[in-house]
Known about the structure:
The protein is of the alpha/beta class.
Amino acid sequence: MKIAILGAGKLGLRLTEALTVGDYDITLVDTNEDKLNQIAQQYDVLTYVGDARSVDMLKKLNIKSYDFLLSCTSSDDTNIFSAACAKALGCKSVIARITEPEHMNQMEFIRKTFNIDHVVNPDMLITGEIYRYLIDKYSITNGVYANKRIMMIEFEADKEPQLIGMSMKEYRKSRPDILIVGISRHGKLIIPHGDDVIQSGDGVFVLGEKSKMIELSKKILVKHHRVPEAHKVMIVGGGRTGYYLAKRLSEYGAYVKIIETDKKRCHYLSNHLKNVMVLNGNGADIALLEDENLSDMDAFVSCTGFDEENLLLALTAKNHGVEDVISKISHESYDDLISALDIDIVLNPMDLSASTILRMISGEKRVLSNAILNGQAELMEIYTDEKMGMLGTPLKNLDLPDFFIIAAINRGDETIIPDGNTVIKPGDHVIIVCLLSHIGFIEKILKPTSKFGFFK
């Protein structure tokens, strides 16, 4: 499969990294020749120096021979134009990164008019995850997969006190028909393995056969949503993420307060948001946050353009007793710091965007369904064929990484919660979970390969 990526920014590079381990021919286009040369030394891709707006450039690439084109430059207009041109020139499927609210408000018209197959908006994706976390936090979240026979539920570990202090090995012995596939702890989602222990305050994702999950969920006390009028949210950072989130929460009925340093941006927010308090000020000013009753907030979201500031602000909010604290980051170099902080959830828009685009590329033939866990991991149902390298060998003999777990198998009329002796066969529907930060590993699994080739 041939894929062209226009724009070697954060998203373009993130996708290049993930796709090069799969069965794809990648062409990366950018105007920065030095940057392309550096990328060509790291990854097995074809690089091309050119302007994404150039129809001649697309013709020289022979874009009609490509299966996908992703336009992810820093300009919405460029991305819309280049995707439309590529489609008109014969590219089979085109994806455009579009972020501005003005474009999103008329997205269906843009898609139909310019014949764009898919649109990705990183700010909308992260907004969706934050909204789901805040609004759904006090109920059991569940999903049904594999022909409606396998089910996952999410709940707080403290609702089942006997789980606290229990290791994964101990849990499997007590409940061999159920598997814990994720633990949310201090802002990070952990893919648990044998010696990992459940702690008080953990959020637990549990998967098993549907009837077993329904039985378990009935035993767990389900708290109801908060009353919208009592749900107070402070957002620091009035960029696109802050705007989309404030709009959606205010429409739900929450009391929302945004703090933004740029006065011009504040005027924009005030004119485009209803029932949202917009304050012009430095969100890093602790005195300001305290004057605006930080301690009385139910939730705090830091989504400025600076990762360090977002994490420090989130820590400040947690120290002031805010229950739900969420932070947006764009780099993966803060993993160790995040683990040390008591933040509830940390989200990376590039990981969410890359995952969304990879699923568009993979298509329904290989990935039958998917769901995002806490914005940091992806649960997928994949169809196995005889070309996949993990077939025919007990799972305990496969060198599977810590960020990945095989959670369940649907084989004909049989539902299997695997252990180390389980063998995957062609035609199985396999439920897997992988951290978004390592989502390229899924492409290795889906890649036709010699036996065990993708593990070496």
